[in-house]
């Protein structure tokens, strides 16, 4: 990686702490990713992206800011990227997936809180994430209680706009969400000085839809037995989707899919068990569960999560001649995401049962980050429904530490044996 210290310094990064992170990440990446056998050539681009994760992409963001663009950080797949793009701004996902950031978060948050929230807060408090520091504004949302209250702490350090997400899916909630999207448009217009028009919104809907289609194409290829790409590699692509330049990302995912289509023609079944993971998101660089599973006789073939199908399922319709029409289309697509923050949330169980069939799954792992109450409460119902259909299922609740890795491995080994 080139020398980016001057850039990090200008962003007010704590260079000493950040150096520690720069030592951990390459080691972790090489141990997790580079030892996989027979990876597709197309993964070279994504290796490069990771090697430059705090370098080149940050440089691109800084260059764009010099040209007058704004950088906007988000934490949830309910925040419509289309609006950010339509105001000539750049969106970056800020969810954080490493234990490295957790102690920083615990300086201002209780210990018994979801590690994802502690990690993204810690990344800002300790000034070790150049993405967070490069953002001109961040957008929070009223999903779980932990995030809702964390915005108050984040807001002391960064300009923030919070979107009020309904927690039910009645007709009035769709209207409310459309209204909330309009408020977000107003906020972005005021912040950037750029108007959202039917024309630029249709363009950004098109970009986001093509990104969704590229990811869907990748996931469809994983339906093949055996999958032509590891779950680890697919997860990495889903994670990179949150911050890479969209057009380049779409092109690279499609190139990779061309290669995978060829690969499928010669692949022979190796007898590996096919696992669907459902649950809370796995933010970069949280590769723990996939790594454990894929070092056993199993492959992860899909993730029903926000770093998976919830990110790309369903397109936004571009039909309509007015902004109101397009906002309604956005509200309809986004409010149909099935997050456990909603009550009831039957759609998620339906999705999981459908994916079990579509991806030819042998067993489901219900993954929950520690202290995530909404997903944890939903687990019993989900497991019951899967058992009714004779689908083996196991619940794994964990955080970003490695202390329980051995125990998780033993449980998954036993789980694979009963399939
Ligand atoms: S749409 S899953 S990205 S809210 S894991 S912080 S819910 S305590 S990340 Fe999420 Fe949006 Fe839902 Fe997806 Fe809270 Fe649970 Fe932590 Fe979570």
Explained architecture:
- Helix content is 54%, strand content 11%.
- Strand 3 (137-141), helix 9 (145-154) and strand 4 (160-163) form a beta-alpha-beta unit.
- The protein has helices spanning 5-10, 15-34, 43-51, 56-66, 81-86, 102-106, 115-125, 130-134, 145-154, 171-192, 198-221, 231-240, 246-264, 288-294, 309-312, 323-335, 346-358, 373-388, 405-418; strands at 71-74, 90-93, 137-141, 160-163, 273-279, 298-304, 363-369, 393-398.
- Helix 7 (115-125) runs parallel beside helix 9.
- The model has no long low-confidence stretch (mean pLDDT 97).
- The strands form two sheets. The protein has a four-stranded parallel β-sheet with strand order 2-1-3-4, with helices on both faces. It has a four-stranded parallel β-sheet with strand order 6-5-7-8, with helices on both faces.
- It is of the alpha/beta class and 419 residues long.
- The protein is globular, with a radius of gyration of 21 Å.
- The structure holds Double cubane cluster (BJ8).
- Double cubane cluster is lined by residues 76-78, 114, 116-117, 143-144, 146-147, 280-281, 306, 337, 339, 341, 369, 372, 374-375.
Q: Could you write a compact summary of the structure shown?
A:
The chain has 419 residues and is α/β, with parallel strands linked by helices. Helix content is 54%, strand content 11%. It is globular and about 60 Å long.
